[in-house]
Design a protein that fits this description.
Strand content of chain A: 35-45%
Number of helices of chain A: 8
CATH topology of the largest domain in chain A: Rossmann fold
Helix content of chain B: 25-40%
Structural class of chain A: alpha+beta
Number of strands of chain A: 25
CATH class of the largest domain in chain A: Alpha Beta
CATH architecture of the largest domain in chain B: 3-Layer(aba) Sandwich
Radius of gyration of chain B: 19 Å
Distance between the termini of chain B: 46 Å
CATH class of the largest domain in chain B: Alpha Beta
Strand order of the largest sheet of chain B: 3-2-1-4-6-5
CATH architecture of the largest domain in chain A: 3-Layer(aba) Sandwich
Oligomer: heterodimer
Largest sheet of chain B: 6 strands, mixed
Number of helices of chain B: 8
Number of domains of chain B: 2
CATH topology of the largest domain in chain B: Rossmann fold
Chain lengths: 424, 301
C-alpha cells in the first residue's frame, strides 16, 4: 500500500535536454533509461536488432528516442521527443530536443514548460555556438536550473584539465545571464555510463553527485505565481437543462494567485465587480483554486463574461495595454518579421490582430551583444520588438508570470506558428 | 503555511481538462474517438468533468473494424447511454463494400490499417474539424513526437518534420478549410498514470482488462483470443489460459498476456513490475520499425 501512496504523492520534474548535433543527447537519455531499468525488454530487443543491422559496435541507445524514419537515416534528432520515467523519488517528463540549428524552435518549445535544462557539451569541442544559443534560450524562457553535462569524457582520457577548461569557458559566458540561478557541472560519458546513474570510477577527482542523483534531489521551488490572481476565462458552461436552468459557470485554468469562495473579483475588460459564489473542480465543490488547477467559477451577480475575459482581484490587476514590449524568438524559415508585419496574436485564451510597430534590437547569441540596426527577423533570430494589438491585452511581465506573460504569433494566411514571445 | 503543490496526477488531470475545453472552444465540430479501451474511457471521464454539469458538447466516434470483442461493444453502448452522448459509428466493412478499402490477404491479415481509411471517411462525412484521441506519448516512439494539437492536411496526413511548435499552454488550432486536427489530452500520461487515475476516480473498465480464462493461440509470440475472427491454423493448437488484455483493439492483432490480476490494485502491481511495454503484445506495431509512423502519416489515430 505504501508504494501506491508514494506514487500518488510523487513530485514532478520537467526538464529539457539540449546540446549541439552529436553531443550525445539521445545516447544520454538512452543511458538514463537503461541504467534506471526504464527500458522494457521488447524495446531493448528492437534496439539490439537494429543496432546489429546498422553494424554499430555497441547497442546504439540513441535509437530509443530517435523514433522517426528520417532521424534514423540521418542519425540525428529532428523533433522534440517526450519521454517519461520515474524513480522512487520523482517522476520525470523529458523534452529531448534537437541540436541541429534549423530545429532550434523545438528547443524553445521544450524549454517553455521545463523547470530545468540539461545542456550537453562535447568535452573535445568545448562551448560552441549552439551551446551558447541553448543556454541563452533556457535563460530567456525563465529556467532557473541548468545542469551542464560535459560529455564524452572517455574520449579525453577522463582528464580533469579538459573538464576544467570547458567549465571555465561556460562560466565566462554564463555570467551574463539573467534568470539562471543554479548552475551545476557534471563530467560524464553517456556512452560508457560514467556519472549518469552510477558514480564513475574513472574520475576520482570529481566530488559531486552523478546526474540522476542531481535530478532527483535538485530543489525546484514552485514555478507558480501564488500572488497575482489571474483567471482567463476559457469556456462558459450553460447546461440548458431543467435541472440546472440558471447555471452559468466560467471555466478555465488558474494562471496565477489563489481564488477562494466569497472573494471579491473584477472582470476584465468590463470592470464590473462581484463575488465568487462557488468553485467547482469537475462536479465537486472546492474552497479555493490556484495555479495550475482547471476549475469552474460561479459568480454572485449576473454579469456578461465570455472567453478571452479575465477574472482578477480588484486590488491586484494586470497591466492593460494595446502597446506591448516583448522578446521574441522567430521560428519561420519562409517568412520574415519586419516593421509593419501583421500577425494573429494568441495570448491566454484570447486571439487578436497585431502589427509590429518597431524592431528594437536583435541579440547576437554568441556575444549576447545587441544589434541595434536590425531590419528584419529571420529563422532562429532572437530580439526585442514593440507591438500594437487590435484590443487591450491583460498581461504581466514574463518574469513575473509565465502564463500571462507569454504569447505566440500566427501567420494569418498559412496558420503556421511563427514566433514565441515573452512580455516585458 | 498553505500547501499549493499538486501531485503529478492532479497536474495531468488539470492539463487534460484544459485541452478538452480548448478543443470545444477552438473548433466548430469536434468528435471524441471512443474505442472502448481504457485510455478513451479515461478521456471520456475527463470530458464529463470538464463540462459538468452540462453534457459533453460533442459526439463520440467509434471506428469499428467489425472484429471487436463482444464485451467491448456491450461496454461501449452502455457507456454512451450513461453519459447521454451521441455515438457515431464508422464501419470498416462499409469502406470495404464501397471499394475504398481493400481487405488484406495472407496469414497475418488485419483490418487495423484499414481503420485509417474509415476514420478519414467518417471525418469527411460528419464534417469533423477535430478528433480527440486517447493516444499517449509513452506508448510508442513516433507518438513521443506528437503534439497535443496535431495538425492534419486535407488528406488527413501527419507531417512529422513540419509540426507546429507548441509552447506553454498556447495551442494553435487555426486551419484552412478541409484540414483538421487530432487532439491528445492524455499526451503526458503513462500507462501507470491511467491505471492509478482509474483507481482513485473509481472508473469502471471492461472485464477484458482483468484476468479471466480464455482459449488462445500463440502466434509469433502474441496470445490471440480464439474467436470468429481468429481461428487456429494447422500447426497451432488452442490452449486454455488465464489471461488479461493490456490494450484492447482489433481482436485479430491484440494479444493477451498471462495474468492473475483480477482487480485494479493487482493490475497496478503487475504494470509496475512489467518488463515489456503494453504495445509489445500488439502485432500491428511489430510489422516494422517505423510501423506506427507510417500509419500515422496515412491518417491513423
Amino acid at each position: 500500500m505504501t508504494e501506491q501512496t508514494n506514487y500518488l504523492d510523487m513530485d514532478l520534474l520537467r526538464f529539457t535536454t539540449a546540446g549541439s548535433v552529436d553531443d550525445g543527447k539521445s545516447t544520454l537519455i538512452g543511458r538514463l533509461f537503461h541504467d534506471t531499468k526504464a527500458i522494457f525488454e521488447d524495446q531493448l530487443e528492437a534496439i539490439e536488432k537494429s543496432s546489429k543491422q546498422r553494424g554499430d559496435k555497441n547497442i546504439n541507445l540513441a535509437l530509443l528516442t530517435d523514433g522517426l524514419r528520417a532521424e534514423r537515416e540521418q542519425g540525428i534528432t529532428i523533433d522534440v521527443a517526450y519521454r517519461y520515467f520515474a524513480t522512487p523519488k520523482r517522476k520525470f517528463i523529458i523534452a529531448d530536443t534537437p541540436g541541429h540549428i534549423q530545429y532550434t524552435r523545438n528547443m524553445v518549445t521544450g524549454a517553455s514548460t521545463a523547470n530545468l535544462a540539461l545542456i550537453l557539451v562535447d568535452a573535445r569541442n568545448g562551448v560552441v555556438e549552439q551551446t551558447r544559443r541553448h543556454t541563452f534560450i533556457a535563460d530567456l524562457l525563465g529556467i532557473k536550473h541548468v545542469a551542464v553535462c560535459i560529455n564524452k569524457m572517455d574520449l579525453v582520457d577522463y582528464s580533469e584539465d579538459a573538464y576544467e577548461k570547458v567549465l571555465r569557458q561556460y562560466t565566462d559566458f554564463a555570467s551574463r545571464l539573467e534568470n539562471v540561478t543554479d548552475l551545476t557541472f557534471i563530467p560524464i560519458s553517456a556512452l560508457k555510463g560514467d556519472n549518469v546513474v552510477d558514480r564513475s570510477e574513472s574520475m576520482p577527482w570529481y566530488k559531486g553527485p552523478p546526474l540522476l542523483y542531481h535530478l532527483e534531489n535538485v530543489y525546484v521551488g514552485s514555478d507558480s505565481n501564488h500572488v497575482d490572481s489571474r483567471f482567463p476565462v476559457q469556456w462558459v458552461i450553460r447546461p440548458h437543462s431543467d435541472e440546472h436552468h440558471d447555471f452559468r459557470g466560467f471555466s478555465g485554468r488558474v494562471s496565477g494567485g489563489v481564488f477562494k469562495t466569497g472573494d471579491e473579483v473584477t472582470i476584465l475588460p468590463s470592470g464590473f465587480s462581484t463575488k465568487i459564489s462557488k468553485i467547482l473542480k469537475g462536479e465537486k465543490e472546492i474552497e479555493e483554486a490556484f495555479h495550475p488547477l482547471s476549475v469552474t467559477m460561479l459568480l454572485e451577480d449576473e454579469i456578461d463574461v465570455s472567453r478571452g475575459d479575465m477574472i482578477v482581484k480588484p486590488n491586484n490587476q494586470p497591466k492593460i495595454s494595446q502597446d506591448l514590449d516583448a522578446f521574441i524568438c522567430w521560428f519561420s524559415g519562409t517568412k520574415k518579421l519586419t516593421k509593419g508585419s501583421k500577425f494573429i496574436f494568441r495570448h491566454t485564451t484570447k486571439e487578436a490582430q497585431v502589427i509590429v510597430s518597431e524592431i528594437r534590437h536583435k541579440v547576437d547569441v554568441n556575444s549576447l551583444r545587441k544589434q541595434e540596426d536590425a531590419e528584419c527577423f529571420d529563422m532562429n533570430d532572437i530580439g526585442r520588438i514593440s507591438l500594437r494589438v487590435s484590443q487591450p491585452v491583460f498581461h504581466d511581465t514574463y518574469r513575473r508570470n509565465r502564463n500571462t506573460g507569454s504569447f505566440i504569433l500566427v501567420d494569418p494566411f498559412t496558420n503556421e506558428t511563427l514566433a514565441a514571445g515573452m512580455l516585458r | 503555511m498553505h500547501n499549493y503543490n499538486l501531485t503529478h496526477l492532479e497536474q495531468l488531470e488539470s492539463e487534460a481538462i484544459f485541452i478538452l475545453r480548448e478543443t470545444a472552444a477552438q473548433f466548430e465540430r469536434p468528435g471524441l474517438l471512443f474505442s472502448g479501451g481504457k485510455d478513451s474511457i479515461v478521456m471520456a471521464h475527463l470530458a464529463a468533468k470538464a463540462f459538468s454539469p452540462a453534457k459533453i458538447p460533442f459526439p463520440f466516434v467509434h471506428v469499428d473494424t467489425g472484429h471487436n470483442f463482444p464485451e467491448t461493444i456491450a461496454f461501449r453502448d452502455q457507456f454512451v447511454k450513461d453519459y447521454g452522448v451521441n455515438l457515431i459509428i464508422g464501419l470498416v466493412q462499409d469502406s470495404i463494400d464501397q471499394g475504398t478499402a481493400v481487405e488484406e490477404s495472407g496469414p497475418n491479415a488485419s483490418r487495423n490499417a484499414l481503420q485509417s481509411v474509415t476514420l478519414l471517411e467518417t471525418i469527411e462525412k460528419e464534417g469533423f474539424d477535430a478528433c480527440l484521441g486517447g493516444g499517449r506519448r509513452d506508448e510508442e516512439k513516433a507518438r513521443a513526437k506528437e503534439r497535443f494539437f496535431s495538425h492534419r492536411d486535407a488528406f488527413g496526413q501527419w507531417d512529422p518534420k513540419n509540426q507546429r511548435p507548441e509552447l506553454w499552454n498556447l495551442f494553435n488550432g487555426r486551419k484552412a478549410p478541409g484540414e483538421n486536427f487530432r487532439i491528445f489530452p492524455l499526451s503526458n500520461w503513462t500507462e501507470m498514470d491511467v491505471w492509478q487515475y482509474a483507481k482513485i476516480e473509481n472508473i469502471e473498465l471492461p472485464n477484458l482488462y482483468f484476468s479471466h480464462s480464455r482459449e488462445v493461440v500463440d502466434r509469433n509470440g502474441s496470445l490471440l483470443a480464439v474467436s470468429e475472427f481468429v481461428s487456429p491454423r494447422e500447426n497451432e493448437s488452442p490452449i486454455e489460459e488465464v489471461v488479461r488484455f493490456r490494450t484492447i483493439g482489433d481482436a485479430t492483432c491484440t494479444g493477451a498476456v498471462k495474468s492473475n490480476a483480477s482487480s485494479i490494485e493487482e493490475v497496478i502491481n503487475e504494470v509496475a513490475a512489467s518488463r515489456v511495454t503494453e504495445r509489445g503484445s500488439r502485432a500491428d506495431d511489430r510489422r516494422s520499425e517505423a510501423a506506427m509512423e507510417d500509419r500515422k502519416k496515412q491518417g491513423y489515430f
